[in-house]
Amino acid sequence: MFRATLQFQDGGSFELDVPEGRTLVEAALEAEAPLRSDCMSGTCGSCVGRLLRGEVTRDPMDQSIVSEDEAAAGIYPTCLTRLGSDARFELDYPLDPCPSPPTRMRAELVSSERVATTVSRLVMRVDDPDAFRFQPGQYLRLRPPGLRVARAYSIASSPASLPLVELLIRHVPGGQVSGWLDGDAAIPGATMTLQGPLGGFALDDRTGRAVFVVGGTGLAPAMAMIRAHAGRLPMLLCFGCTRPEELFLHDELRALEAATPGLEVRVALMEGASGTIRAGTAVALLAGDPVAGSSYHLCGPPAMVDAARAALRAEGVGPERIRAERFAVGG
C-alpha cells in the first residue's frame, strides 16, 4: 500500500491510500477522492497531474494526450499511472469550491441559434441546478432526444448563470448532433440528457495575468472563465477563426471587453481580415506580447494548441504555466 498526496491549486490537499498495482484514479474512485477523471483510458486529459515526488510507472497511451515537454516536466494521466512508492501530485484546479459529482440529468432546450456557418449556440435549463455545480472550464456530455450518442462540449456560461447552461457546438459534416441541429427537432422545450460536470481544465489565477489562446469553439471554456473571473485579474483573449463567415460572437466579445476592467480581446482571421480584426492565427496574436507573469490557457484544434505551445516554449514559458483543453471536437 502506498500513500498519494493530491495537492490542489488553492493549497488544499487530500491523502489517498493506493494499493500496489492499482492506478491512482482507480484508488481515487474507490475512496471518493476529489481527483477528476472521465474516460479511464488516457484519451480525455481530465485526470492529468504533475508528479512532484515519488516513483511511478505509466501504462501505454493510445494517444499522445501528454506532450513531450509535459512528460519531461512530470505530467501524467493518472488513470494510467501506478505508484512504486509514496508520491505527491499537483493538480491544476482548486479543491474548493468542489464541483458536484458527475451525474446524469435532464435539461430543457431554451434556444438554438446559428451564430456562424459552422457554429450553433445552445442554451439549456437544467432540471436540478443544485446537482450541477461546475467550475469554469469544465465540460459536459450532451445527448439530444432521439439520439443514442452523447458528445462532449465545454460549458461557455459561468456558474452564476445556472440554471441556464450555454454551449457552443461546431457543425461537423456527418455528425449526429450536427444533423440534429440542422433538423426540425432542435426546438425550445426539447428534452436533453446531460452528464457532468467533467474535466480538469481551469483558470490559473496564481499569476498576475491570464492569457487565453483559442480557436473556433475552443472559445467556450475561455468565455466561462472570463465571465466568472471578470475584473479579478488582467486577462487577454486571443481568438482566431479561418474566414469571416466562420467568425462568431465578435460583437459580444467587444461588448464584454468594454464592460470588463482589465480584459483585452484580440481577434484574427486567416482569410478576409479587416478593420480591428487582424490577419493571421490566434497564435500570431501573441507576437510581441510580454510573457512574464502570465499563465496561458489553450483550447482549440490540436494543431493550434501544438503551435501555441511551441511558440510559448520558444519564448521561455515553462510547461507549468501552460494549460490546454485536450478534447477533440465532437460531431
Give an overview of the whole structure.
- The chain is of the alpha/beta class and 331 residues long.
- It has 3 domains: 2-90, Ubiquitin-like (UB roll) (Roll), CATH 3.10.20; 103-198, Elongation Factor Tu (Ef-tu), domain 3; 209-324, Nucleotide-binding domain of ferredoxin-NADP reductase (FNR) module (Rossmann fold), CATH 3.40.50.
- 16% of the residues lie in helices and 33% in strands.
- It contains 6 helices and 19 strands.
- The chain has helices at 24-31, 68-72, 176-182, 219-228, 250-259, 302-314, and strands at residues 2-7, 13-18, 48-53, 56-58, 75-77, 81-83, 87-90, 103-116, 119-126, 139-143, 151-154, 164-170, 191-198, 209-215, 235-241, 263-269, 278-279, 294-299, 322-324.
- The strands form 4 sheets. Strands 11-10-13-8-9-12 form a 6-stranded antiparallel sheet.
- A hairpin with a 5-residue loop joins strand 1 (2-7) and strand 2 (13-18).
- The N and C termini lie far apart (43 Å).
- The mean pLDDT is 92.
